[in-house]
Structures are given as structure tokens and as C-alpha cells.
Design goal:
mainly alpha; 4 helices
Length: 68
């Protein structure tokens, strides 16, 4: 599954939970496991480097999925 599809599914889930259980529950669900996912996604860029250099190296990766 590509990244855009993952985002689409995530926001569909958010909308469904928000409609059924409210915004706070949807927000909490959206961010479950977030630190672990970020470590997995960003680890390759920031391990053994400064945070600033890691984010600089990650720019092209995040541009591919439409983020500036």
C-alpha cells in the first residue's frame, strides 16, 4: 500500500470515529502508536545524526508524498 492510500484510510477512519464517538476519540485513535510510527519512519534519517541534519535528509522523502 502506498503512502497516499494509508493517509486516505487514516482520515476515513478519523471521520467515521468522529461522527460516531466524537472528535476527542477520533483524535486519540488517529495518534495511537504515533511515536513508534515516527521512529520507524524517521529513524533512518536521524539515527547517528543530529535532528536538524536528519530532517534535512528527510525533505525529499516527504516531498514525494506531497508534504513541504
Amino acid at each position: 500500500m502506498d503512502v497516499k492510500e494509508k493517509f486516505r484510510q487514516k482520515f476515513e477512519t478519523y471521520k467515521k470515529i468522529m461522527d460516531e464517538e466524537g472528535e476527542q476519540k477520533a483524535w486519540d485513535t488517529l495518534f495511537e502508536g504515533y511515536p513508534e510510527r515516527q521512529k520507524q519512519n524517521m529513524g533512518q534519517f536521524i539515527d547517528n545524526d543530529t535532528l536538524a541534519n536528519g530532517f534535512t535528509k528527510a525533505i525529499s522523502f516527504y516531498k514525494q508524498i506531497g508534504m513541504d
